[in-house]
Structure to design on (331 residues):
């Protein structure tokens, strides 16, 4: 298959020289099937030597185009810009800090030949399980290769509107689901997300004057706000039910209130946004746990650690809820 005239690569980056070097090592490896494709790099005016590193590769590979924005427009806006400029039949938007395995690339080429509307090339969230898992997987930007004809005017405007919810890329995901488009999910992953603890992904490079609502935005809130783009209310409710990181809704809701208090200044807007995205049943139990949380607030202190929530009754540790948080998006 002639990928050169079918698939283009757009890579978004900002101040990630070390990570980008590792990404380049994989993209331009001898066994890489994409090394000779048209590759556009959207650089948010990096200041750490990233631009100079890119220029070194531009000299080696004439298929690279380096676009430097006049200003740092933010990671999500950079992703939206990538969707906007996509011009070939398919586009694959990459980040600057993930890992790749080209062993099973032949499955991707077959899906391209089959004229699929999207190809899911990451599967650590088991997207074949159900539509909720599929949506969660596609919050990871490089997880999807998309047919550009599905990037309609409406999808673009929805993506731009959804910048404030952190998941601009879910505009095309919701469009594909709403229109029952043909989505192929690869059996083996091609790209895998590599979390970088402590790195702010959405607001890197901004000063202390960040909008407080953006500063307090939790991914749970951004995700549920994004689900308003799912037309079928039953499907939307199913996805919201399944987004839980925990084994049951009680611990999930309690975790949200705890992390909202600790990391988002007890944002009432976050609570309202979550509430507005739910169906009646979900709202009922959400409010019930919220009331319990508020009533117990004076006698129970909650500490969110990396893998569990600790509850202290009058200062004495009594119990905890363990959970395994899953990274949802990385830039």
């Amino acid at each position: 298959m002639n990928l050169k005239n079918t698939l283009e690569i757009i890579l978004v980056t900002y101040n990630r020289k070390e990570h980008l070097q590792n990404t380049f090592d994989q993209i331009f490896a001898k066994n890489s099937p994409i090394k000779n494709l048209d590759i556009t790099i959207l650089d948010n005016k990096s200041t750490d030597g990233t631009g100079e590193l890119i220029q070194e590769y531009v000299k080696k590979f004439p298929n690279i185009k380096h676009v430097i924005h006049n200003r740092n427009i933010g990671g999500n806006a950079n992703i939206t810009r990538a969707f906007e400029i996509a011009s070939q039949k398919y586009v694959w938007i990459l980040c600057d800090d993930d890992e790749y395995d080209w062993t099973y690339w032949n499955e991707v080429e077959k899906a391209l030949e089959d004229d699929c509307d999207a190809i899911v090339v990451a599967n650590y969230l088991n997207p074949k399980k159900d539509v909720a898992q599929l949506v969660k997987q596609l919050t990871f930007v490089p997880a999807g290769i998309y047919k550009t004809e599905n990037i309609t005017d409406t999808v673009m405007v929805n993506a731009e509107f959804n910048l404030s919810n952190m998941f601009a890329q879910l505009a095309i995901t919701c469009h594909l689901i709403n229109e029952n488009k043909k989505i192929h999910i690869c059996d083996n992953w091609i790209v895998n997300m590599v979390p970088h603890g402590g790195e702010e992904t959405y607001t890197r490079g901004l000063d202390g004057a960040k909008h407080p609502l953006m500063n307090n935005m939790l991914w749970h809130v951004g995700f549920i706000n994004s689900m308003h783009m799912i037309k079928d209310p039953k499907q939307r409710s199913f996805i919201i039910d399944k987004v839980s990181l925990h084994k049951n809704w009680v611990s999930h809701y309690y975790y949200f209130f705890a992390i909202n208090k600790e990391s988002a200044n007890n944002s009432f807007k976050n609570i309202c946004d979550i509430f507005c995205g739910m169906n009646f049943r979900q709202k009922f139990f959400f409010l019930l746990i919220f009331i319990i949380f508020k009533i117990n607030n004076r006698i129970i202190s909650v500490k969110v650690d990396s893998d569990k929530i600790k509850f202290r009754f009058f200062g004495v540790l009594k119990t905890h809820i363990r959970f395994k948080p899953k990274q949802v998006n990385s830039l």
About this structure: The domain at 3-192 is CATH 3.90.550.10 (Spore Coat Polysaccharide Biosynthesis Protein SpsA; Chain A). Residues 300 and 313 are 5 Å apart (CA to CA). The chain has 13 helices and twelve strands. The radius of gyration is 21 Å.
